[in-house]
């Protein structure tokens, strides 16, 4: 039997090129080798206030992006988190074995709480437990994650091991899959920070639905480092980041990229990067528009039904182990 992978994204903000290169691209590559479950984690989105109509629309739009990226419903299970109630049921069980200190150490809560933890919603504090539930429900072997999510996966592993020690072997302990290149694409305006869909400065991110003029302007405004050579160099994070984007979009090796830009300046490099990005996004955006709501429902509902058959088996085993 194939090993199983699980991953998901929140239907908030706009997905950017970093989300594609660091996550979606790997999802597509992994769906042939593994039994893949890709979820739209809309319950995570409500840790912060959301407009209901906007949330529903963004949930469907995110499904379109999954499909346009190449996630194939014939090879992967695509579904909406809230359509599988076992996610929240298992989250309650896991919250009863999780420890306050574990959650207090979560860096994302510290960031999103912005030093005002007493006014933050309880869900913002406990959502790593729901994330662990997402993963453990499907007896997941492998979780494609960026470096920023590795801490949450460690919590999932800790909870699985603690439950197994206390109640007998029930959960598969998941392992991380972190790609060597492109795991964390950085902001075009601040290469010390990752590219983020919640960045206040929209020029820092290339969104997957940006039009060609917007993409070109953002890349031409991207910050650069001192020096004149176009080569991979971790001591020059800005050019290193831009060259990584070029490498991953074109499929060239690191040596090919360096040789291609030998003797060229930043102006030529940015022009070629903008052209490569626009040429990648054009067919992607065309594919996004191919899926109407009816087509999406025809994919998402069967996906949720398949997910529930596995999730309910896991939850049943959990309840039986605990005497519930």
Structure, explained:
The longest helix is centred in the C-terminal third of the chain and has 30 residues, at 293-322. This protein has helices at residues 17-30, 42-45, 52-69, 86-95, 100-104, 107-113, 122-136, 150-167, 212-220, 237-250, 254-260, 266-288, 293-322; strands at residues 4-9, 35-40, 76-80, 142-144, 175-177. It has 324 residues and is mainly α. α8 (150-167) links the parallel β4 (142-144) and β5 (175-177). The chain has 13 helices and 5 strands. It has 2 domains: 4-178 and 292-322, HUPs (Rossmann fold), CATH 3.40.50.620; 202-287, Tyrosyl-Transfer RNA Synthetase. The strands form 2 sheets. A 3-stranded parallel β-sheet has the order 1-2-3. The chain has a two-stranded parallel ribbon with strand order 4-5. The mean pLDDT is 91.
Shape: globular
Q: Identify the quaternary structure here.
A: single chain
CATH architecture descriptor name of the largest domain: 3-Layer(aba) Sandwich
The biggest beta sheet, please? 3 strands, parallel
Number of helices: 13
The main sheet orders its strands as 1-2-3
Radius of gyration: 21 Å
Say how many strands there are.
Answer: 5
N-C termini distance? 30 Å
Number of domains: 2
Question: Averaged pLDDT, please?
Answer: 91
Q: CATH homologous superfamily of the largest domain, by name?
A: HUPs
Question: What amount of the residues lies in strands?
Answer: 5-15%
> In the CATH scheme, what's the topology name of the largest domain?
Rossmann fold
**The CATH top-level class label of the largest domain:** Alpha Beta
What percent of the residues sit in helical stretches (DSSP H or I)? 40-55%
Low-confidence stretches: none
Structural class of the helix and strand makeup?
mainly alpha
SSE string, helices as H and strands as E: EHEHHEHHHHEHEHHHHH
